Each structure stands twice: as C-alpha cells, then as structure tokens.
C-alpha cells in the first residue's frame, strides 16, 4: 500500500464527508422541509460518492480483505439503485413511495450483502468464535424484534391500516441493523488486540447510523415522515463511513490502561444479554401482579443470566492466566532452543545447528543459485594458549567471532565448527564474492586489538563453491574441498 497516497485519499474522504453533510443539512434548513427532490438527489449523490470511495479503498487492501469490502461495495450499489428508483418515483408521480415497493427489493438485497460481508470477515478474523457470534446475533435479533413488535409495530398497526407485508418490511431494516451492530461488537470483543482499530470503529458507526435512521423511519413513516427531512442524510453518512473503513489497515492497536480493558471486556460480555434483560424487566413489570408464575419464571431467567455472566467472568480470568503462562512458556522454549543451538563462548551457532542447516540446504538445494562454504582455522592457536594462557585464547575466539559476524550478511550463517575452527555458509554467493568476504575478514582480524602485547593472529581460510550449473549437489564434497583449500592456505603461509 502506498502510505502517502492512502493518507491523502483518507484526508479528502473525511473532508468530503464533513462538507457533504454540512451542505446537505444547510440546504434542508434553507428550504425548511420543501426539498423533497433535492434531498433525494443529494442522498443518491452521497451514496454514489461512497461507492467510488470504497472502490478506491479496495485497490489498496490486501487480498484476504478484498472480498469482504467487495461485497460491502455491492451492498452500497444495491442501496444506490433503490434510492434512484425512490427518487424517480417521487419525481415522476409526485407522491411519497409506500412500502413495500420495488425499491425495497434493492434495500433488502443491500442488507443481505452487509450481513454476508460481515459474516465472512469475522470468520476470517476469528473463525473459532463464529458459532458464538451467531448465537449472540440470534439472541439480539429475537429479543429486539420482540421489543420492536410490542412497543412500535403493534401500537402503530392499531392506529393505521398497515397490512402484513408493510409490517414485515418496516420491521426488517431495524432488526437487521441490530444484527450488524451485534456482529461488530462481537468482532471487537473476540478478535485479537491488533484487529481492534479504526476500521472496526468506522464499521460500528456506519451501522449505528443505519440503525438510528431505520428505527426513526419505522416510527415516522406511519405518522408524518416525508422525504426532505433531517433524517435523510443519515443513510448516505452510513455508506460514507462504510467506505472509509476500507482505507484503514489492520495494525497493532495502542496499549490501553488495564481499567479501560476490563470495562470494555465486561461491556462486550453482557452486550447480548441487554435486550433479554429489557424483555424480562418489562415482562415482570406487566405480569408481576397478574400472573405470579410468569413473573417468577422471568426472575429465574434473570438469575440464570447473572450466573452465566459470572461464569463468563471466571472463564475470562482463566483465559488471561493461561495466556500469560503460555507466553512465559514460549519465551522459555525460545530461550532453551537458542541455548541448544548457540556456542556459549563465541555466541555463534554450534556444530549441531550447522549440521542441521547443512541438512536443510541439502534437501532444498533446488532453491539455490549458488553456495559457498568458508572454513576458517586460527594458526598456531595451541601455541597462543600455551604462551598467553587459556583466558587470552578465549578472548581471541570471542574477538574473531565478532569479526566474522561483522563481515557477513544477515542471510549468511556462521558457526564454531570445532575448537579453533569456524564455518560460514554463504547462500547465493559466487567464489569471487566469497573471496571478498574472506579478504574483509582478514583485514578486520588484522585491525583487531586483542589487548595482549606481541600477539599476532592469522587465519587460514578455505573456500569451496557450488552453482546450479553443476551436475550434482554433494555437501560432503564441498566441505572436503573447503577443508583442503584451508590446509593449502595454512601450508602456503608457513
């Protein structure tokens, strides 16, 4: 992703959203409710701009996120088509569109696109919690649908002539919005910390706009709703925020205070039970004097829910303890593995690790274009130990190891092959390149101060190479050639 380009696009999108809503509400105030066609046009324009914005954002998304936001873009497109049909009907026939209509086909399709996109996304982010999220969504939808029917639909239908399909369509949108919000909150709760970022906050704000707009529309449409009111900008604002979420990558979230994390976790834990709690409270209030059995059942369910929340709290505490123990265990395993593969004196790889590395190279030789192996021996090292002592000998080994580490690349592997012998594995390195490494190493050792007057250290170095033009790859033969070259270098020096 081009960070500078994306940053500029995000700034433009945010400024565009603020200007759009300011102009939209400014015109509605200016025309004082006599802006039906203007509002319809502005709403469609906002959704069209949102569609272009999300398409621009999808270009920068990684491959595993493109499908989700592609489905969201399809949902915005479907909603845009529905609004165009709505605006066209009001412009041609000069009447308010009644539900259900052809427009509702595209609105319903848009809702299903949003639901499918969120379901696929949460499955990719937290697949193990997909079933739990499904139950949370189901609980929220059933409880909220009951509340909406009881306190919105039934009072409205008692005073109006709504038929079955009108009630169904009117109920569909706010219920779906509650499902979206539940999924987003579940995503924030069950996803890993690095997933909780601006992207998901924008998704939550987007569906919150839809929920508020659809809920108010459900109430107003049966009394005094007409297009051109202050409710209309909420729908394009929701699609705009939905499009903006595509510009925010998944990244590590900043650390939060422990108190903040606890409050957030408890809130998300009890979220699916909020609607049930409201249902039970209302049920107990209405039937506590009429039917004690119903009230008793409701209170029993409350106690069961409270016990369930307590169990969830205890489980969360156990999970935190297990996560901490697993983290410490992983750190200990990594430390032990490093100790098992590292020479304690020189901090280079030990012979065991070098042998494993050679075996790995042998089994994956087809991935190499060339390989050079360098064997290094310290001349007269036994004499250095006898003359200056083993402590000085250890210092020599450590200083030469530091010179070796400073002379090679990050992809190269250096190790202590024996008492005073070292080995360097140089993948994708020609003989000439390996010769430059050897020269650099000799110069580094020559310039090294061993803090011992009169001590001169010389290295014997042997190099053997292989490339993919050779007929066979025999690691033992390469080592034999490198060893022979090292002893030839030692004999020439003497």
CA(first)-CA(last) distance:
59 Å
- Helical stretch tally: 15
Number of strands: 4
**Overall body shape:** elongated
The class by helix and strand makeup works out as: mainly alpha
Q: In terms of per-residue confidence, which ranges show pLDDT below 50 for 5 or more consecutive residues?
A: 192-196, 251-258
Cα gyration radius (Å): 35 Å
Round the mean pLDDT to the nearest integer and report it.
77
Question: Level of helix content?
Answer: over 70%
- Total domain modules: 3
The run of helices and strands is HHHHHHHHHHHEHHEEHEH
Beta-strand content bin: 5-15%
Main pleated sheet? 4 strands, antiparallel
Strand order of the biggest β-sheet: 2-3-1-4
Question: What this model shows, in words?
Answer:
The model is unreliable at 192-196 and 251-258 (pLDDT under 50). The chain has helices at 3-31, 36-58, 63-93, 102-125, 130-159, 164-190, 198-220, 234-244, 258-287, 292-341, 351-363, 381-388, 390-407, 431-446, 475-493; strands spanning 370-378, 413-416, 421-427, 459-467. Helix 5 (130-159) crosses helix 9, helix 9 (258-287) runs antiparallel to helix 10 (292-341) and helix 13 (390-407) packs across helix 14. The chain is built from 15 helices and four strands. A hairpin with a 4-residue loop joins strand 2 and strand 3 (421-427). The chain folds into three domains: 3-254; 275-341; 351-493, 2-Layer Sandwich (Alpha-Beta Plaits). The protein has a four-stranded antiparallel sheet, with helices on both faces. It is elongated. The protein has 494 residues and is mostly helical. Helices cover 71% and strands 6% of the residues.
């Amino acid at each position: 992703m081009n960070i500078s380009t994306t940053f500029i696009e995000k700034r433009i999108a945010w400024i565009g959203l603020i200007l759009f809503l300011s102009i939209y509400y400014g015109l509605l105030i200016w025309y004082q409710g006599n802006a039906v066609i203007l509002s319809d046009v502005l709403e469609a324009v906002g959704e069209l701009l949102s569609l272009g914005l999300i398409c621009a954002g999808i270009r920068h998304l990684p491959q595993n996120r493109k499908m989700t936001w592609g489905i969201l873009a399809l949902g915005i497109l479907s909603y845009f088509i529905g609004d165009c049909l709505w605006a066209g009907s009001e412009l041609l026939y000069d009447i308010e569109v009644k539900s259900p209509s052809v427009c509702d086909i595209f609105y319903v399709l848009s809702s299903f696109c949003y639901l499918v996109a969120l379901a696929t996304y949460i499955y990719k982010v937290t697949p193990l919690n997909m079933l739990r999220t499904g139950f949370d969504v189901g609980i929220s939808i059933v409880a909220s649908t009951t509340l909406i029917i009881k306190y919105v639909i039934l009072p409205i239908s008692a005073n109006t002539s709504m038929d079955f399909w009108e009630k169904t369509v009117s109920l569909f949108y706010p219920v779906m919005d509650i499902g979206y919000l539940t999924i987003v909150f579940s995503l924030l709760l069950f996803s890993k910390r690095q997933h909780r970022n601006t992207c998901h906050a924008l998704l939550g704000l987007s569906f919150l706009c839809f929920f508020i707009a659809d809920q108010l529309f459900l109430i107003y449409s049966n009394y005094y709703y007409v297009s051109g009111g202050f409710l209309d900008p909420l729908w394009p604002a929701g699609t705009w925020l939905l499009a903006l979420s595509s510009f925010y990558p998944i990244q590590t979230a900043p650390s939060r205070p422990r108190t903040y994390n606890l409050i957030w976790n408890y809130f998300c834990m009890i979220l699916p039970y909020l609607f049930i709690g409201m249902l039970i409270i209302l049920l107990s209030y209405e039937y506590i004097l009429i039917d004690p059995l119903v009230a008793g059942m409701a209170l029993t369910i409350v106690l069961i829910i409270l016990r369930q929340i307590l169990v969830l709290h205890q489980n969360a505490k156990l999970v935190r303890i297990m996560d901490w123990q697993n983290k410490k265990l992983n750190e200990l395993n990594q430390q032990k593995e490093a100790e098992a593969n590292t020479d304690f004196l020189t901090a280079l790889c030990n012979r065991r690790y070098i042998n494993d590395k050679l075996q790995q190279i042998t089994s994956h030789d087809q991935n190499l274009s060339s390989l050079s192996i360098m064997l290094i021996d310290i001349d007269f090292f036994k004499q250095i130990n006898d003359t200056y002592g083993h402590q000085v000998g250890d210092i020599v080994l450590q200083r030469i190891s530091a010179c070796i580490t400073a002379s090679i690349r990050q992809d190269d592997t250096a190790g202590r092959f024996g008492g005073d012998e070292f080995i360097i594995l140089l993948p994708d390195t020609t003989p000439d390149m390996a010769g430059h490494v050897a020269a650099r190493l000799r110069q580094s050792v020559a310039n090294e101060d061993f803090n011992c007057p009169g001590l001169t250290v010389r290295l014997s170095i042997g190099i053997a190479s292989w490339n993919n033009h050779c007929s066979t790859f025999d690691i033992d033969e390469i080592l034999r050639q490198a060893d022979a070259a090292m002893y030839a270098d030692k004999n020439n020096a003497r």
